[in-house]
Design brief:
This is G-protein coupled receptors family 1 profile domain-containing protein. Keywords: Membrane, Transmembrane, Transmembrane helix. The chain is mainly α. It has a single domain, classed as Rhopdopsin 7-helix transmembrane proteins, CATH 1.20.1070.10. 75% of the residues lie in helices and 3% in strands. It contains 10 helices and 2 strands, in the order αααααββααααα.
């Protein structure tokens, strides 16, 4: 009974988060200059990947309710669908985290190395590598089935023995989570020494939100894929961690709307039917806030110089 309750809650949270993401980024794409903003394109592609997972979970829930497969090959098809979307999400997140990590290692070029264009290129390079890998091992691809009790997808080889995850999927998933946690923890520590308390609070809140999400996905992945074959996985723990990951996905749009200036302006203008706004080039709100702080300092310096010049001019005239 507990497993069914958590499965329904997990599906509800996942559907809510996906609908919120789609509405938010629809507003952004209609009101922001997203064609010149690869950061928004990257986030949108990640949202589409999660939408694929949501569709698969919905169909699997319908099969659970009616107690039979909707199609003869639905288990295999849905498993491949989930596998592809999960891997795509991991690749995109690892690309963003990798660029953030480089920016922390070389802080003098933070904004340049963490630019969305470099992130997009990194994601394309990783995709190319994985595509070549998939083609090279076509003869040993795994079939997939899922556990109806929790809608948890398990990976099986042709002879029926459990193969929880391929080595490349393990590498992508866990390197994504570990690099993300290190990167955003480093950013939080770095931003703790900033003088502006308001910007520092927003930046730390955004970083903690990302760290919470990656930690929940890491624990959930570990509970599903690291379980040794001689031990039976604890389904209750998997269920709770799945709900934690879904909660993160549900609150993610609110965090984007709160801390990303471009998303906020575009969404408000979409609701009020105003003219399009100019989009920034950041993947999240961290670079935006840093850039805003620099612009504020420059504006203050320019005003001070103008006042100094005007005062000196008046003194000469007198």
């Amino acid at each position: 009974m507990l497993l069914y309750a958590t499965a329904y809650l997990n599906l509800f949270l996942y559907l809510t988060g996906t609908v919120a993401h789609m509405l938010l980024f629809t507003a952004v794409f209609m009101k922001a200059k997203w064609r010149s903003n690869p950061g928004l394109v990257l986030i949108a592609s990640l949202t589409v990947c999660e939408l694929m997972s949501t569709i698969s979970f919905s169909v699997a829930m319908l099969e659970t309710i009616v107690s039979r497969p909707l199609t003869p090959t639905s288990a295999y098809t849905l498993g491949k669908f989930i596998n592809t979307s999960w891997l795509a999400s991991s690749l995109h997140i690892s690309a963003m985290a990798f660029n953030r990590f480089i920016g922390i290692v070389f802080p003098f070029s933070f904004e340049r190395l963490c630019s969305p264009r470099r992130t997009l290129l990194t994601a394309l390079c990783i995709w190319s590598f994985v595509a070549i890998y998939r083609v090279a091992r076509t003869g040993t691809c795994c079939s997939v089935a899922y556990d109806r009790r929790l809608l948890v997808f398990r990976y099986y080889v042709a002879n029926g023995s459990v193969n929880y995850m391929s080595y490349i999927d393990q590498t992508v998933t866990y390197s994504t989570s570990i690099i993300s946690l290190i990167s955003y923890t480093s950013i939080v520590v770095k931003l703790s020494f900033r003088r502006n308390s308001l910007l520092r609070r927003k930046e730390r809140a955004l970083c903690f939100q990302f760290a919470f999400g990656w930690l929940s996905y890491t624990l959930y992945s570990a509970s599903l894929f690291i379980t040794p074959s001689f031990l039976s996985p604890n389904m209750e723990i998997c269920a709770v961690l799945a709900v934690v990951a879904s909660v993160h996905w549900t609150i993610n749009p609110y965090m984007y709307f709160t801390f990303n200036e471009t998303v906020q302006k575009a969404a408000l203008q979409f609701l009020s039917c105003q003219v399009p706004c100019v989009a920034d080039r950041s993947v999240d709100g961290i670079v935006v806030l840093m850039r805003e702080t620099k612009n504020q300092r420059r504006n203050v310096e320019l005003v001070a110089r103008k006042e100094l010049k005007s005062n000196s001019y008046r003194a000469v005239r007198v």
